[in-house]
Amino acid sequence: xxxxxxxxxxxxxxxALKGISFxxxxxxxxxxxxxxxxxxxxxxxxxSGLLAxxxxxxxxxxTSLLGIAPHDVVRKGITHVPxxxxxxxxxxxxxxxxxxxxxxxxADVDQDMEHVFTVFPRLKERRAQVAGTLSGGEQQMLAxxxxxMAKPRLLLLDEPSMGLAPVLVEQIFETVLTINRQGVTxxxxxQNAAMALSIAExxxxxxxxxxxxxxxxxxxxxxxxVRRAYLGEA
Length: 234
Hints:
The protein is an alpha/beta fold and 234 residues long. Among the domains are: 1-40 and 191-203 and 210-224 and 230-234, no CATH class; 79-151, no CATH class. The protein is built from ten helices and ten strands.
């Protein structure tokens, strides 16, 4: 579905991604692991058109995405839930969800909003509430729900568990599994490596802009280097 080939990305003169290549097959959950500064967020921002690559290619079902504006990337079926949620704090829950559907011109928006409320019942209870007054967990639900309103085929998730209590982390990851089972392919960036590997089919480990390891999630979870570096084991 998604193929990244020899991708190079810079911030000014800083070479942030140094020729990474990976694939995401339709229906999978694939996770990108790595320490802060490894290039995980840079990767997602490049895939969604927010950053320009200087080399390589990104293809969605055989069509290059490089040079395409972010809103057109959304129209092609990719939505991005950014690190830090980036909801519209002064808008209500419903208004935020409506913003997620801004690229659409079909008549199913209301039906899809009800689907989001099925996935996140808490949002239905808060539908008229100003988003900036929601709890951290509710804001994360809203950020994911807003992305779902664009009817993505591929969902990019950047640190969905950041800053959440453990019980909410489990809830968010259960929801990610539910969304995947409903037919959405997911590329997941997550500091909670144990949780990410528990739900993913495959994973890639980034180190300072390069791919260091890749493989089935279970194999990565059993890899001594991964266990030491990312799972907190001696």
